[in-house]
From TrEMBL:
Keywords on record: Methyltransferase, S-adenosyl-L-methionine, Transferase
Biological processes per GO annotation: methylation; RNA processing
Stated name of the protein: tRNA (uracil(54)-C(5))-methyltransferase
Reaction catalysed by this enzyme: uridine(54) in tRNA + S-adenosyl-L-methionine = 5-methyluridine(54) in tRNA + S-adenosyl-L-homocysteine + H(+)
PROSITE patterns the record matches: SAM_MT_RNA_M5U (PS51687), SAM_MT_RNA_M5U_1 (PS51621)
Species per Swiss-Prot/TrEMBL record: Mastacembelus armatus (zig-zag eel)
GO molecular function, one term: tRNA (uracil(54)-C5)-methyltransferase activity, S-adenosyl methionine-dependent
Domain of life where this protein originates: Eukaryota
InterPro entries with a match to the protein in the record: SAM-dependent_MTases_sf, TRM2_met, TRM2B_chor, U5_MeTrfase_fam
Amino acids binding S-adenosyl-L-methionine: Q306, E365, N416
Database matches in Gene3D superfamilies: 2.40.50.1070, Vaccinia Virus protein VP39
Length: 497
């Protein structure tokens, strides 16, 4: 069923009612205790913010499995894009109003009352994604029982393991997924159905074939990564099935996918890094390449890269301007100078795109392969003022940041952590390094643990928490829509002192 067509004619839901009810989000932050610090009082909210106060979609027999999956993966697909942006803008303003309420003490004096429209700094209009459909450059497809009960079904889940009602539904109809990803998923499903091996649905029950990840770039190159549980198979037996997989995608029916890279990872863990269990290149090129703001970037099998390349250019352009707001003079840009500290730097995209405006870039990243990519990316772009270090930020940064105290021409920090936010020791190090006058925080979930980071960066000095440096103040926020048809977006927040 084509959801694009259904969207225009579906009588199941009213767009306007859905949008209005979504905007009546419940208060995410409340407490009856006034004798604790702001950071202690705050607890992360539910991840279903957009459903709060909303009439749930009816689950009747006439709602197809495809629609149910779309409601899970792309919950806003029934809304127009303008309505999606309006919803996201209001939600980001609500989150930031709550931050302002915490910092002003309003939540201490009236902990049960919402603080809305209380913004003490500007929030710019959300920047839209240049691409709205088929924008994902990375998709992971699971293997489990399908609607017909076939355990060798490749798609995405509807239901929960807690209820014992997981159904794997093909993703051919999802608006955010490109056709190439859907094609690889269909071919992988055909392959495992031909295979003599069973799928690995639960590790303790046996089986071997697991997820497949598909990555593409703007040039149309495609990488597939197949995950495999060896169970009790010998290396020689595993080699036989790797050969079958390779033959299927290079010479057999799967050759229609025209893969540029085929990787294989065998592991007894749910997720593991390249260092824990190497990605084995069965065919093609070891890396993919993507261009952002005129720079070329190498992407490894497990490296992080924003899933929407077109919107990533909008995001990184915004981050670059906030990190180093150079001005036009005499037909060219003036160099801001100073040092940029890039925490959670990934493959070095932010540091490299800002590098021409500063004297030095220092990046810190946990994943070693991403650090290798970052170093390669700096070299291939002839960027000579970037250096990248591997390790946990909470281990590397506290000992290293003291060396930056006497950085000439200023020190700016940019952080782009995962949804879990920054470790408390990282926040301490940034807060206590007084030479950092400007900090740019990029968050994909500002109403999660990132909110605790915001509060600890901006609260009054707290000896008990070892937050002794001068407080930051939020001065500007810019939402960027990276994920059309979903309730998520990126928030770029500028802190200054």
């Amino acid at each position: 069923m084509a959801l694009a067509a259904t969207c225009s004619r579906s009588g199941l839901f009213s767009k306007r009612k859905t949008f209005d009810s979504m905007s009546k989000t419940c208060l995410l932050f409340s407490s009856n205790h006034t004798n604790v610090t702001l950071a202690d009082r705050w607890k992360p909210p539910s991840n279903t913010w957009w459903r709060k106060g909303t009439k749930k979609y009816p689950r009747t027999d006439h709602v197809s499995w495809e629609e149910r999956l779309a409601d899970v993966v792309t919950p806003l697909w029934r809304l127009s894009y303008d309505e999606q942006l309006e919803l996201k803008q209001k939600h980001q303003e609500r989150i930031l109003s709550q931050l302002c309420g915490h910092l002003s003490g309003a939540f201490q004096s009236q902990p049960s009352s919402p603080v809305l429209n209380n913004l003490s700094f500007p929030v710019l209009p959300i920047l839209p994604s240049p691409v709205r459909d088929g924008y994902r450059n990375k998709s992971m497809f699971s293997v489990n029982r399908g609607i017909d009960g076939n355990p060798k079904t490749v798609g995405l889940y509807v239901g929960t393991g807690r209820e014992g009602k997981i159904v794997c539904v093909n993703a051919d109809h999802l608006l955010n997924m490109p056709e190439k990803h859907k094609l690889v998923a269909r071919c992988y499903q055909d392959f495992i159905r031909l295979s003599s091996l069973e799928p690995c649905l639960l590790f303790h029950t046996g089986g071997h074939w697991r997820e497949v990840t598909v990555r593409t770039n703007t040039e149309g190159h495609t990488m597939a990564v197949v995950y495999f549980h060896p169970q009790t198979l010998t290396p020689e037996e595993v080699a036989v099935h790797k050969a079958e997989l390779l033959d299927y995608f290079t010479c057999g029916p799967g050759s229609v996918c025209q893969l540029d890279s085929l990787y294989f990872q065998e592991s007894t863990m749910t997720r593991c890094t390249h260092e824990e269990s190497p990605y084995q290149l069965l065919y093609g090129q070891p890396h993919m390449y993507e261009e952002v703001l005129g720079f070329k970037f190498r992407i490894s099998a497990d490296a992080f890269f924003q899933v929407n390349q077109a919107a990533a250019e909008v995001l990184y352009g915004t981050v670059r301007h906030l990190c180093a707001p150079s001005t036009e003079e005499g037909g060219g840009r003036t160099k801001v100078g100073g040092t940029l500290l890039d925490v959670c730097c990934g493959t070095g995209v932010i540091g490299i795109t800002v590098s021409s405006r500063v004297d030095r870039v220092i990046g810190i990243e946990l994943i070693e392969q991403a650090v290798d990519d970052a170093r390669y990316n700096a070299a291939v772009n002839n960027v000579l003022n970037c250096e990248f270090m591997s390790g946990k930020a909470e281990v590397v940064l506290p000992g290293f940041i003291s060396q930056l105290s006497y950085t000439s021409r200023g020190l700016t920090a940019v952080v782009n952590p995962a949804r879990a936010g920054l470790h408390h020791r990282v926040v301490q190090a940034l807060r206590n390094q007084t030479s950092i006058r400007r900090l740019v925080y990029v968050s994909c979930k500002p109403d999660g643990e990132a909110m605790r980071n915001f509060i600890e960066l901006c609260c009054e000095p707290d000896q008990q928490k070892k937050l002794i440096g001068e407080a930051f103040s939020p001065s500007l926020a810019v939402p960027v829509d990276m994920f059309p048809h979903t309730p998520h977006c990126e928030l770029v927040l500028l802190f200054e002192r």
